[in-house]
Amino acid sequence: MSSPTVSSNGYPFTSVQQTSFKVYSPVRGGTERSLPSAAPPRLPFSRITEDDLAFFRQLLPGRAITDPDMLESCNVDWLKSVRGNSEVLLRPRTTEEVSQILKYCNERNLAVSPQGGNTGLVGGSVPVFDEIVLSTALMNQVLAFDSVSGILTCQAGCVLETLSQYLEERDFIMPLDLGAKGSCHIGGNVATNAGGLRLLRYGSLRGTVLGLEVVLADGRVLNCLATLRKDNTGYDLKQLFIGSEGTLGVITAVSILCPRKPKAVNVAFLGCSSFQNLLETFQCCRGMLGEILSAFEFLDASCMGLLEKHLKITNPITECPFYIVIETAGSNAVHDEEKLHNFLEKVMASSLVTDGTVATEDVKIKALWSLRERVTEALTHDGFTYKYDISLPVEKIYQLVTDMREHLGDRAKNVVGYGHVGDGNLHLNITSPTKDPALLAAIEPYVYEWTSGVRGSVSAEHGLGLKKRNYIYYSKPPEAVALMGNIKAMLDPRGILNPYKTLPDNLNLH
Q1: Rounded to an integer, what distance in angstroms lies between the CA atom of residue 293 and that of residue 423?
Q2: Judging by beta carbons within 10 Å of its beta carbon (0-12, 13-18, 19+), is residue 21 exposed, middle or buried?
Q3: Is 508 left (phi over 0), alpha (psi -120 to 50) or beta?
Q4: Which of 237, 199, 256 lies closest to 420, judged by CA?
Q5: Does residue 12 carry a pLDDT above 80?
Q6: Residues 418 and 303 sit within 8 Å (Cβ to Cβ)
Q7: Percentage of the chain lying above the pLDDT 90 cut
Q8: How far is 223 from 201, CA to CA, in rounded Å?
Q9: Which of 133, 135, 124, 132 lies closest to 39 in space, CA to CA?
């Protein structure tokens, strides 16, 4: 087998080369650590043999894929920044098939890369070397739905948008909404603890996921597929797997609590003259809209410029330095519109908001939401993009963008910020005409040091994957990381599940 070309931040290197740098963490009192900045060399896993292929083909007739053309999309991440060299794609339909696959792989010491919709941004869902890709794409059945409790039970490979459509027909909605909803799988959403646009209203998946079915590394099936809101019997084991990025087990089914579909939805698109005014608008919004507030998103003028330039989207209000998308969702249209009207009247009268527009019809609502949701698409047309998903204290959320612009000067083409003000999640994006190692060196580790200095998180909702695994110490103390390593060693002693991901290289897990 040929050696793969892997890129931890968009730059190729061979599988035996490795560089290191010093990491300074202000939070840790200046502690100095040396961590590799690239993927480590391939670990001593077994190589696929003809006997292995024969076993998989017998277990999965027609679903053990070795065609290079079919494997191409599984070996490359969505950003095309990481490329592996898997030669086998397995497509199970049942939990029992996943169990047999992992039992066999564990005995043979074959590494496995679990994969859902492959929409991740940190290289967590593709092989790094020649790991077997275990896809959940055919595990796409709704198993049960309780219309009284609103609890949905489904296989891990169900596409988020398909589940949303299924629920809307029954007057419910998913508590999760993402820009990648047309491709991402619910199992992958849970495995990465995806955040998204509805977190402000419905909370994180850690609260809405009631139960999981997980296959462990040795093939044992852990059936914790509970449908109870309250279950206080011992450790809450499902929480180990939410956000573990497939390193502790493969999620095969999910039970999730779904809210009723709101009868009245309003979306307001507003402009602010400063970020301080935006923050004060947020405070006022939470106070006056309260229980009907479902989203509070922002984008800066640079984002709007990219939307206008690359996607030919028209700005529906006058030009402003900052823009807000506010969504309300409730059960009484008259009541909600009155509350929203009073809020808008107050923020306009106090000059917190300089201009705005409101939509109540589906077509217009989608048009306003597109101004926030299509920023990622616009960025893809602006050049090579360095993407950072950061969680910060709300009052600091835009300061990083300002400081990064000053820090980079004219080395970057654009530095833009957008995200979820409601939960302190900034999406910092930096573009350049092409991949630029000098620019990357100026961004990292500066961005992580800055984040650590205000006690933020280097990953708010996209996980750590391959790209950020060695930056974990900026957000977690060594004792916590070591304990994570102990848990990994207990559940996956041979380290076959999604190696090179999430946990730092210095734990020496294999």
Answers
A1: 13
A2: middle
A3: left
A4: 199
A5: no
A6: yes
A7: 78
A8: 29
A9: 124
Structure tokens at 324: 């807000």
- Supply 154's token pair: 């489904």
Q: What is the mean pLDDT of the chain?
A: 89
pLDDT above 70: residue 9: no
What number does CATH give the domain 264-375?
A: 3.30.70.2190
Confidence of residue 508 (pLDDT cuts 50, 70, 90): low
Distance CA 464, CA 123 (A): 8
- Please state the domain extents for the chain: 6-137+485-507, 142-257, 264-375, 382-462
User: Is 60 exceeded by the pLDDT of residue 6?
Assistant: no
Could you count the other beta carbons within 10 Å of the beta carbon of residue 291?
10
- CA distance between the termini of the chain: 22
Q: pLDDT at position 233, please?
A: 86
pTM exceeds 0.85:
yes
- Which amino acid is residue 214, in one-letter code? V
Backbone angles phi, psi at 189, to 5 degrees: -60, -45
Asked if the model's pLDDT at residue 406 lies above 60, the reply is yes
Q: What is the pLDDT of residues 103-156, one digit of tens each?
A: 999 999 999 999 999 988 888 999 999 999 999 999 999 999 999 999 999 999
pLDDT for 381 equals: 94
User: Which residues does 371 contact at the CB level (< 8 Å), separation at least 6?
Assistant: 269, 299, 304, 307, 313, 316, 323, 325
- Confirm whether 264-375 and 382-462 share one CATH topology: yes
- Name the β-bridge partners of 265: 329
Q: Is there a contact between 279 and 364 (Cβ–Cβ < 8 Å)?
A: no
Cα–Cα distances (Å) from 507 to 46, 265, 468, 495, in that order, read 21, 48, 15, 12
Residue type, position 309, single letter: K
Which CATH architecture group holds 6-137+485-507?
Answer: 2-Layer Sandwich (3.30)
Average pLDDT over residues 340-352: 96
- Structure-token pair, residue 4: 């793969």
Architecture of domain 142-257: 2-Layer Sandwich (3.30)
Mean pLDDT, rounded, for 503-508: 86
Q: Say how far apart CA 300 and CA 424 lie, in whole Å.
A: 15
Length of the chain: 510
Domain with residues 382-462, CATH architecture: 2-Layer Sandwich (3.30)
SS (H, E, C) 152-166: EEEECCCEHHHHHHH
